[in-house]
Design goal:
Order of helices and strands: EEEHEHEHH
CATH topology: Nucleotidyltransferase, domain 5
Strand order of the largest sheet: 3-2-1-4-5
Number of helices: 4
Oligomer: single chain
Number of strands: 5
Structural class: alpha/beta
CATH superfamily: YqgF/RNase H-like domain
CATH class: Alpha Beta
CATH architecture: 2-Layer Sandwich
Length: 135
Amino acid sequence: MRYLAIDYGNKRIGLAICDPDETIASPLTVIENKKPLEQIARTIESEDVDAIVIGLPLNMDDSTGPQAKLTLKFAEQLRKNIDLPIHFQDERLTSFAADEKLASAELTTKKKKKLRDAIAAAEILQAFLDQKKQN
């Protein structure tokens, strides 16, 4: 099964994909948050996606903050437009992990910022796949 992970943000949305064996999550791309449903639908078709994993940015106390509410609203829009199963994965600290991976890269701050969202989406997806294997 191929999963597409989405790291939803107000300005940018990171996308990642896994291999059909559900072993490795890889950063795919970052899209601007302008008509994202169309771009995501094209990605789903071109990458032969079977299901979606959306990172849910819960607060450290497990409560739902403003960004998590925006993410849930986006997921509802996605659900109305795309007929695939949608799963949620706790995304706390994935941006931090992405920053750690980019720290040693010899890239400009602007390039790191753009890659960060796709790498965070891959972190979300890898956590989902690892948790799935454990269960």
